[in-house]
Amino acid sequence: MKMFRIEGLRWAIFLFATLLMPCGARAGLLGDTVGATLTNLSGGQNAFNTTAVVGGGVEFQGDFTGAFQSHWTLDISDNGISLVGSNCVIDPSCNFSSGIRLFLSSLDFTPPATLTGLTMTSGDLVISGTPVVTASSITITFQAFSLDTMGGSGDQSKNFVTDFVTTPVAATPEPATVFLVVLGALGLGILGLRRVLN
Asked: Using CA atoms, how far apart are residues 59 and 173, in angstroms rounded to an integer?
């Protein structure tokens, strides 16, 4: 008799623990729509300022014109970014004397997570100060730099690669889910009681 009660209690505890267990999946952006703006801080011109769906390949690309004529691409992966600038056509170089700023918005990770920072940063674009991070956006300002023309002796391209650091958002179980777990536990209890009475 006692054995059936203990077995029913074990199943009830198992079901309840499974319901409350945090999700171990890694947060990502694939399939989400994000916004990106790349701004030249010498004059305020944007190479791109739009939204795109995160998938395979480059999501954003555009050109700075005038004295800063160069081509820029931004590839957003599931959990990071790669920014590349190249093809300066101004002689002798494209001099970004005040740097550039990258703003990313609508970073809604799946499963739900909060953006907390950057990690694994590499490349030859140097961050100026500390990136401004909110739960779903980030602003990165880069120091002054220059791009040389094709065939010149200086840097003909610049890049920046980094991964996002996220913190999972604890999910609250839906009332219907809690109801079904309680109903299942009650059912197991009734089955155990019927076996004891028989």
From this structure: 35
- Is 127 a member of any domain? yes
Q: Please indicate, yes or no, if residue 9 is contained in any of the structural domains.
A: yes
Confidence (pLDDT) at 23? 46
For residue 94, give its domain range. Answer: 33-167
- Give yes or no for a contact between 80 and 164, defined as CB atoms under 8 angstroms apart: yes
Percent of the chain with pLDDT over 90: 49
Task: Kindly report, residue by residue over 131-151, the tens digit of the pLDDT.
Answer: 999 999 999 999 999 888 766
- Cα distance from N-terminal residue to C-terminal residue, the chain: 10
Q: Distance from CA of residue 41 to its chain's centroid?
A: 25
Q: What is the pLDDT of residues 13-42, one digit of tens each?
A: 665 555 555 444 567 899 999 999 999 999
Q: Clarify whether residues 7 and 76 are in a common domain.
A: no
**Quick check: is 27 in a domain?**
no
Q: Which residues pair with 36 in a beta bridge?
A: 50, 104
Cis ω before 92 (30° cut-off from 0): yes
pLDDT, averaged across the chain = 83
178 and 163 share a domain? no
Helix 175-197 to helix 2-20 angle (10° resolution) is 170
Beta-carbon neighbour count of residue 22 at 10 Å?
10
Whole-model pTM over 0.90: no
